[in-house]
Each structure stands twice: as C-alpha cells, then as structure tokens.
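The passage that follows is intended for readers who have already worked through the single-chain material. We present the inputs for a multi-component assembly, then the predicted structure in tokenized form, and finally a short commentary. You are encouraged to pause after the input and sketch how you expect the pieces to fit together before reading on.
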Amino acid sequence: MSGSLLAQSAVNALVLSSLYILMALGFALLLSIMGVVNFAHAVIYMVGGYVCYELIVTAGLNNWVALAITALGLGLFGLFLERFGFRPFFGNTNRIIVLTLAVIVILESLVNVLVGSEVRAIPSFWSGSFQIKGVWIAHERIIAFVAAAVLLIAVFTFIRRSRTGQQMLATSQDFVGATLQGINIYRITAIAAFIACALAAVAGGLMGSLMFLNPFAGDQMLVRAIQVVILAGIGSIGGVLVGGLILGVLNAFLPLWLEGSAVDAVGVAVIIVIMLFRPQGLFGHEA
Amino acid sequence: MLESRWSKLAGLLLLLVILFLVPVIVGGRPYVLHVGVMVLLNIIMVSSLRTIFLSGQISVAHAAFVGCGAYFAGVLAKQFALAPWITIPAGAIMAMVLGVLLGIPFTRVRAIYFAMVSLFGGIFLVDLIRVARTWTGGGTGLSKIPPLAQSFVGQKVPYYYCTLALTIVCLIILWRIEHSRVGMNWKAIAQSHLVASSVGINEAFYRVLALAVGCFFAGLAGAWYAHFNMTLSPDSYGFLPSIFLVMYMLVGGQKSFAGPIIGAGLLYSIPEIFRRLGTAAPLVLGVVMLIVVYLMPEGLAGLYDQLKGQLLKSREERVTKSAAED
Amino acid sequence: MLLKTRGLSKVFGGLRAVADLDIQVADGQIVGLIGPNGAGKSTVFNLITGVLRPTAGQIIFDGADITNKKAHVTAKLGIGRTFQSAYLFPDFTVLENLVAASFLHPKCNFWEATLRTPGYRRKEAAKLEQAKEILEFVGLEPMQDELAKNLAHGYQKVLGVARALAVKPKLLLLDEPVAGMTAEEIAFSLDVFKKIREQGVAILLIEHNLEFMTLCDRVFVLNFGHKIAEGTPQEVRKDADVCEAFFGTEDD
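Having made your guess, compare it with the prediction:
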C-alpha cells in the first residue's frame, strides 16, 4: 500500500465525512425535533445538485452565488413541506411516511422527465490540483471540505449559542416540556425544516461537483444519512459529527481492500452490531 | 350483520370470477398478463409484510427477504439443476430462516429503532447477494433461471393461473393466522408489549414468529418470481423497493386485510397503465399518494367506512339541527 | 407466605430506586404499598413481575425463586398485574381485551391455533366463556362490545383489573387502582376488590390515598426506595416517620 494512496484516502475521508454530516445533521434535526423520518431528505439533496447545475450552466451564475440560491430555494421548499406536510400530520407516522415517499416519487420522476438520463456534472468550483509531498490533491475536494466545514461550524454555533438554537435543543430533548415552557413549537419546527433542506441542498451542490448527477443519486445518500444518525443515536445532534467521521473513514479506506458492495456490507454490519449492543446509538440516551 | 357478510362474500366471489376471466378479457395480451402476475406476487409480498406490522414491528427490509427467496431458488435451480417444486419451498424457508436469525437478537429493540435495524438488515442482505458474485452474478444479476415448467416458456396464461392459485392459497393462510389466537397475540403486542407480557404472552417469541411467517411468504413470492421472470437483479430488492412495499400497504390501509390487496393492486398497476407517459408515469402515482395522504387517513381500504361515518355524521347533524329548530 | 422479597434492590444509573426491600404477602391478604411520588413503588412491581431485573436480592413466589424470570413467565406462574397508565389494549373491544388476556387458560400451542383443530376451537370457546364470566364478575358485561379506548376512565381501570384476573392469578398487583376515579367509580371498584379477595386471590396494591388503606390487612410504607414502616393500617398511621414522609412536606 503506497503512502500516497493512503493520503488520498485520508483526504477523501474528510470530504465524505463533511458531506455525510451535512446530510445527517438535517435528518437528525427533523427526527429529534418532530419525530419525522424524512425519507425525502436525500431527494432534496439530489434536486439541490440539479438546481445548482442549472443556475451555473444555464443561468451562468457564479458557483457560490448559485449554491447560496439553491440553499435558500430548497430551504423555502423545506418550510413548505413542514407547513403543509409534517405539521398537519404531526405524530401520525404512517401518513408522514407516505407523504415523504410521495415527495420522493414526484421529485425523482420530475427530474427524470426534465433532465432525462443525460450525464451532467457541475463545473468545478476551483479546478486543478496541487501537490504536497508527492500527493496530488484536487482543489475541488479541498473546496468541498472547507465549504462544508464552514457551514457546519456556522450551524453548530447557531444551535449552541443562539436562543432559537437552544430552544431547538430543548424541543428535541423533550417536546411536551418545551411546549409547557412556552416555546413556540411551530417556529422551531419551521426553522429546523429550513435548515435541514438547505443543508441537504448544499451537500447536493458540493457533491455534484465531485461526481456525476443522477436522478436516483439520493437513494444511497439517504442510507448514509440514516447510518450516521443511528451511529450517533437518535436525539444526539453532536453525535452526528462523530458518526459522520466514522462512516466517512470507513467509506474512504475500505475500498482500498474491498470491492464496492463489500464496503457497504461492512459499513452496514458495523451499524447492526452497534445497535445490538447499544440500541440507542453511541451518544443517545437510554430509551 | 348477516346481510353484510353475504354481500361481502358475493363481492369476493365476483372479484374471483373477474380475476379468473382476466386472460379472456384481455385476449391473452402477454404484457397485461405479465403485469397481472406481478400484481398478484406483490399482493403476497405486501400481505406478508402486513403480518409483520400486525405484531407492531415496522420492517423496512421486506424486499430483501423477497430477494433472498428469489436468489436462493434461482441459484439452486440454475447452478444445481433442482426442480422448482424443491427450489420454491427452499427459497421460502431460506427467507424465513434469515428473518428469524436477524429477528432474534433485536427483539428488545422496538418502534423506530426496530425500523432502523430492519432497514440496515435489508441493505446488508442485498449487499451479501452482490458480494456472492460467483453464485449470484453480483451486480449484473442472475439470468437464465429455468422456468416453472418447460411447457410454460413464452406463455403467460398458465403462469397467470398458477400465480392466481398461489396468491389465493397464501391469502387464505394469512387470513386464518391473523384471525386465530396467534394473530390476536400479535395485535395485543402491537398495542402494548407491557400489557401483553403481563397476561403471559411471550413478546419475543411472537415477534419472531411474525417475522418467520412474513418472511416465509415474502421468500415464496420471490422464489416464484425467479422462475417466472427467469432473470434477477439485486437492485429490485434494495432499500427503495422495501419502502415501496411499505407504501403499498399504507396507501391501501394497514388496518384492514384488504388494504395490501387494494394498495398493491392499484399502485403497482398505475405506472403500467400510464406507461404511455414514459418517464412521467410515476408522477401519477405520486399524485394518487398525495390524494390518499390528505383525504384518506385510513388508506383506500378505510374509504368505505370513512364515507359511511361521514354520511352518518352529517345525517345526525341534520337531525339535531331540525330538532333544535323545532 | 405467597410472596416474599429479600434484600430487593434496583439501581438506575447510580440512583437507588429500591433499596434492600423486604416485603411479604400472605395468602388471601390485601397488602398495601404506600409512599410519596417517586418512592419506588412502581419499580417494585416491575421487579416482582420481571419487567425489570433486580440489581440484588431475591423474590420468592409460591415457594419458588422467580428473581430473574421474565414478565410472561411470572404471569404464567400466577401473578396478575395492572398498570398505572396504558393499562389495556385500546383498539380491542372490552370482550376482546379479556379474550386476549386469557392466553394462558386453557393452554394451546401454535400448531393447534393455525390448524384450528377441534381441540383449539373448544379451548377458544372456553376462553370466550371465561371472559364473559369475568366481565360479569366485575360488572362490565353491558359494555362488552365497546372499544376499550371509548370507555370512561374509571371503567378502563376496572377493565385493567378484569384483564389481570383473566390470567387466573394467585396474586394480583394493582398499581394505583383508584387514582383519578370519581367517588362513584371508587365505590364500584372497592366492591370488585372485596369480591376478588373472597375468591382467595391475594392483592398487593399501590396507593397514595391513605384513606383507601383501611381496606388493607397490612401496609408497607416506602420512601426514597427504603421501607420506613410496616404494620396494620392503624399502626402505620401513628408512625412518626410516615407522618413526616406524607405530611411533612405539605406546607409548600
């Protein structure tokens, strides 16, 4: 095993981890605050990639502006989804599941109809690559990592420091208690939905510059997001960081030794074993 | 009471006659019959999934068990040249054994945690199918599986009738289990596992039993499919196909035995009926799902009761209103 | 002694919910377990019935050690119980609640049930009969076809007791059986409990209500997981510690 391959994988691990965390954080927010298993989360990610592509290539916008508009636009879609989807069916798991599946079916086929199976990729944010000690690293990977990391720091600071963020945490710990304390629940759930969808959209835009876009690309990402959330433990926002890092490392290094589907099998087996001994996840509270 | 029972029986009989005449009605058009067989197999899959849900276990791995049955039967038939009457039961039993093995360690995990575990269990099984490439053909799939019978090759009508018979038998068995003491124990556990065990119901045993029954019939449908379609692809058994089975059940109505039948029948057919729309066909499906979510809280099967309830309510309101006016 | 615990303890994350508890219930007695909120009473029930595993100590029931037995096994051995909340199967009718609870009596196995042998049918018919008898016994038979969740709160609790009786218990554990009931419903349940005792079933019950304790033959008082007093209801009421635990904090 050459050192440069390992170094490449380390960079990959960082990039993957940060994107997984972006995805999983939104999923975890909705899950812990509203109890919503948002299966449509990764479809937002996929749509984010395409919207970003259209804004850059068709509308000719700057990459960063396009990414910001994408995040805002899909964040607004998140607000819409929360107001007319999750809120009316609050507490009714079955109906929310069907609703999110309907969103998946509709958005996936819409993209499929509008774009078709043509191969598309978002133009690089910063093309080229550089060399450290004989290891070539593509600029765009660094960009993806840095962008994701900055965004994550911003969101975590918001959750930890701001009043609204504290209220979000309180709601995720104890919904009824939060209501009794006079927290405006619907303001909290709306903000959570906005953040969740905006983060997924950014992850889609960043990932779209590293890989080809595909209308069904979300499916695998959804599994990854859920993997991270389960590793972290439902209700633990901070644990998402560790869970994402573990999964990123597994998915970056295992391909050095194993073929694709075996990598997935190992990743999933790790989760199953963890759930066997700690059903509440690594950082969850005992149920 | 008796009257409604007779009308139900009459309706059922009418449905059977129609199903029996389908090949005649469509004039033996192979494509329609192919869809018909798939609808019937999906009905078995979704009904068996509902069996697992009856015991309060949210399984998002059901397609994976269908896949295990299909692949086990397919590999036995292709690589070992075993006859379908051996491979099909073998596939069903294999799925059942896997369901039990995965289910036993997780009997202390409930609700959303169980759903998550099942999700990963399903993905794990499909990954195993992909990894065992020498047997299963890996990601490219398994092809040239022998048909149910050599004389069936190129024909759909015999497949249709055989599948119809299989479906009816499976549904009768599932119905009887649900309406026996076993089904009652499942429903009791689903409502409250604490109360159920306080009256002596062994929660772990009955939950694993539900998995065994559900996975058996899933594997059976899968194994049958292997000999019908003669090619298999691991993509048909992944995460989204499992979710779709859950969706068929929820849209059809989880509370009623007819729910999975209506849900699978309608939702599986929609994209096929609107095939002319091409890639836009699933959009119709999405719209139907939205209609059901917003207008029918108990799914399509609950629609009749829902309408009846609303009718009674509005009549009552009218009566009280006129009484108030008097 | 029908039920005896020796040094029963349960620790939750460093906190001793039940500490070194000895209690006894004799055949045919009504025994009370009282104490302020959070005294560990419900935990004691969960330990006895096997919902929770004790950290230390021993539980003897009917001459056998049942310390680490699971909940469905203790039911089989003859311990019926009710719960403080979520006491029934809400989506079953009243009658179905009892039929579901008559799982153990008479016994039948999985194959009998799926194949519906004549023996199974006979046993199920017997269960239906038994369920109706119990409903009559507790006086709920007029409501047998109502959905359990549609019953008034008090009747739901009585149904919980009826359900526990379907196990044919030697010992009945009742967790706050009259909490939240109207005076009328309380009178109704008191009759039921007395009738149960006449049948020779011992009762261990949890109550806040000291007045209700007059029904008991013997009372154990718990505070912070420790037993602070035991005796007849009259003796216990005079005890200074009990007054402290119950009335000492009443000023706030």
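Commentary: Chain B touches chain C at residues 176-177, 180-182, 184-185, 187-188, 191-192, 194-203, 209 (CB under 8 Å). The radius of gyration of chain B is 21 Å. How closely did your sketch match?
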